[in-house]
Every structure is written in C-alpha cells, then in structure tokens.
Write a structure and sequence with these properties.
Blueprint (H helix, E strand, L loop, with lengths): L1 E3 L3 E5 L4 E8 L8 E9 L5 E6 L5 E6 L3 E7 L24 E8 L5 E6 L5 E6 L4 E5 L5 E5 L6 E6 L5 E6 L3 E6 L5 E5 L3 H11 L5 H6 L16 E2 L5 E10 L4 E9 L8 E4 L5 E11 L16 E8 L2 E6 L7 E4 L6 E6 L5 E6 L4 E5 L34
Length: 396
C-alpha cells in the first residue's frame, strides 16, 4: 500500500510495518530524491492500506490483523529516544517519530481499504468480513456498519463533497450510500439493457445465463485482493476499476466512469489493459485546458482532471479532455501492482507491487499541464455535459 502528501510518502506491506519517506520530485534532469524517515510498528500482520488525513496531519493504516491504527508525528524532538529502523543491521536511525494514538477494532477479518471523509472527522473501511464500517475519528467508535455485500469489500471511496459513500466488492457489485446516514441508494452489478437483449437472443427461459454475461465487474479473484475506486477531486466523476465489457470473442477489461448526476449507470468506459484494473487514483491538482475549442472537449469542464489507472501489470494515465492516454508505463514490476498515490502537488506518482518494490514517477513542472486556479464564484461542482457522450472513451 502507498500514500503520499507533497513531500512525505508512506508505504506498507507484508512485513507488517509502515515506512515513511521524504520524496522530492526530479529537478534539472535528475531523478526524484527519496529519503527514509521512519518505521512504524504496531500491526501484527500484513498492512494492506495507508492513507493520510485530508490535512496531512494524521495517517491511518489497516491490515490483516483486522485493526486500524491512527498515527501522528511527535514534534517534541528533544524528548525522543533514537530508534533503529527497518535497516537495523545497518544502523539506520529514524529521523521522525510517529506514534499510534488510536486503535480502531470492529472488523473480524482483514481490512483491505480505507478512506477519510473530506473534513477528516470520519473514516470508511472495507474488509473481507463482507462489511464496511464508518468510524468517528475523535471517539474511535463505529457510527455505521454496512453489511449489504455478499463477499469481500475490496475498495471504498468517499465523495469529496461528502454526499456519497461507495464500496466495491468481489461479489461483483458497486454500492452507493448517502453519506450522512448511510442509507443505501444504488446497487450496480449488471447492464440491464445488455441483459434484456441477451434474454431475447436466448429465446426466454430463466435468463440466468444472460444475467451472468451482463455483469459490469470481473469475477472474484480476477483482481487479486483490491478494487480501489476513486472520486475525482471536484466530485464530478466516480472512477470504478475491475470493469468488463463483452467483445466479439472475449471480455475486455475496462474502467467505468460515472457522473455524480447519475451514479446508477456508467456514462462511458476506458478499455485497454490486458489484465483487470485494480486501482484508479485521481491527481489532486486540476489543470488548465489545452484545447480552446469546446466542440472538441469530451466533457464540459473548465479544467482537465488527470487520473491514473493501474491494471495488475501496467499503469495508464489519462485526462478528461482527450480519448488517448497521456502515458503508459508497463513491465516495471515482477508481481502484481497493488496501489497508487499522487503527491498533493501532482508531481509524483508512487506505485507499489506484491514484489516488495515501489516505483516513483516524477513529473517536471508543468509536464502534466498548467495548474488551474478556480476564480471567485466558480461552482464547487461543475456542470458535466454527458448528452450524446455514451462510450465516448471506448475507442482508445
């Protein structure tokens, strides 16, 4: 698992530790500079997910021990005792001291994914005990227990405008909840139009085969352990991995895009990866448009949203202004990709894998575009023009 603020990154894995790093983007043609900061020890088993709070002050971690820990850095450096890190045999010392100030226990199995609410007051967690839990950070108590999935909850997302919560499961369904009271709003699992068409082709009957062939999401185990979905930073889109669409001879792996005005049906999909998509992460920075002609834009947005899509073996970077990917990175790891994280300034993308290594993509200033600054009076949620745009991205 991996997460990053502007200059601090956190990684975690099968050694049951969380490691903190200082990451400085490339400058003047040089590679990104990575420095070890600290080793955090409290988990007993594999750590599956680490996430910074929106203000960057706290870190949440979750793992196979069923526990979540909340961490904060100690600033009273004069009282700290030197602690050896993951490189004990080399005498490497921790440069920072992070302490676990709260432990959250409620899941009875591995906790696979977590996310913070936009105000940092709540956390949503998903587990292989088939449940998701909404926690209150201040008290450490469970606020809501969501048990609507029939199998592992492998991905969770919190709407940045705090209207919706979403969970994605290996039961091949996406659930959308109202954020305040966690009432279930939508359950998305099958393409209804496709299912009806297949029923007609089959000439009636129970329709069981048609239902199975009309599933939006790949089968259990296809994405290993994670299906990490993501809202865009403005809340206009929901990007959902582990998608599939039928082709002439085979099923194609895709990423589905939903708009907040219609979270029941995807507006389009992005195909391409040869293996199932397991993670989608949006760059937190919005960029100015490159094309001044509105007729050539895919969505009616005053800016570009950049997002990264990871399959089990490659990472593809897109934006919302064009059909073609911006970057494609493949053959960088010996095992499956597990997570992605952007730095808060959008200049670093960290990639983790089961092989125990991390890849850091570092972008030059303005390489992804010129940063967009919202003017006064701009809407918090931009209008998204989706009329006549169904499957606009299915030809990439």
């Amino acid at each position: 698992a991996v997460v990053s603020t502007q200059s601090t990154g956190a990684t975690a894995g099968a050694d049951s530790d969380v490691k903190m790093w200082k990451v400085v983007p490339q400058r003047e043609g040089k590679d990104a500079d990575v420095t070890f900061l600290s080793n955090l020890k409290r988990h007993d088993k594999t750590v599956n997910c680490v996430r910074f709070s929106p203000d960057g002050k706290y870190l949440a971690s979750s793992g196979d021990d069923g526990a979540m820990f909340l961490w904060q850095e100690r600033k009273d450096k004069g009282e700290q005792q030197p602690q050896q890190s993951f490189g004990d045999e080399e005498g490497v010392q921790n440069k920072e001291t992070w302490t676990a100030f709260k432990m959250l226990r409620g899941h009875i199995e591995d906790v696979m994914d977590i996310c913070w609410s936009p105000d940092g007051k709540r956390i949503l967690s998903g587990s292989i005990d088939n449940s998701a839990i909404v926690w209150e950070v201040k008290t450490g108590k469970k606020m809501f227990l969501l048990k609507d999935h029939g199998h592992y909850v492998q991905g969770v997302a919190w709407d940045p405008i705090s209207s919706y919560l979403c969970t994605l499961s290996s039961d091949r369904s996406l659930l959308v909840y109202e954020a305040r009271l966690c009432n279930l709003l939508h359950s998305i699992s099958r393409n209804k139009k496709q299912e009806e068409a297949r029923k007609k082709e089959e000439g009636g009957g129970s329709g069981r085969e048609a239902a199975m062939k009309s599933r939006f999401f790949v089968e259990e185990g296809a994405t290993k352990y994670f299906r990490r979905l993501s809202f865009s930073p403005d809340g206009a889109f929901l990007f959902v991995p582990a998608g599939q669409v039928p082709g002439n001879d085979d099923v194609h792996n895709v990423t589905f895009l939903f708009t907040r005005s219609n979270l029941k049906t995807p507006i389009c999909y992005l195909p391409g990866p040869s293996k199932p998509v397991c993670v989608v992460r949006c760059c937190p920075v919005l960029f100015q448009l490159r094309n001044s002609q509105p007729s050539k834009r895919r969505f009616k947005l005053p800016y570009r949203i950049v997002f990264a899509v990871a399959s089990l073996s490659e990472v593809i970077i897109y934006d919302t202004e064009q059909l073609c990917p911006i970057f494609l990175v493949s053959d960088i790891h010996y095992a499956c990709i597990t997570d992605l994280a952007w730095s808060s300034n959008g200049r670093v993308l960290m990639i983790t894998s089961y092989d125990g290594f991390c890849t850091i993509l570092s972008f030059d200033q303005d390489e992804l575009g010129t940063v967009y600054f919202k003017g006064e009076g701009s809407p918090a949620v931009p209008a998204v023009d989706c009329a006549g745009k169904e499957n606009v991205a299915n030809n990439t």
